[in-house]
Protein: DUF3949 domain-containing protein
Amino acid sequence: MNNLTTIILIIVGIYLLINAIMTPIQYRYYQGMSEEQKRKGKSKQEYYEDMSFQEEQMHFFNQSSILFLPASITAYTIYKLRKNK
Structure:
């Protein structure tokens, strides 16, 4: 293998490792958001409307960061599958 292939494989490996680490963290984030929403007795829409600006920005970054997008999608799918059982 040449140097470029090795570098690409290392970058992809690091990216996959980051997403493997972030999936359980994102899962707990979804779980915590759902529990807090239920505890406050609000619909999802009401819950997001009542967030402070800082919370909205943090939530937006956690859910839409291109770096964590695969982990976020995986965690959300696992959460929904477990919740529906």
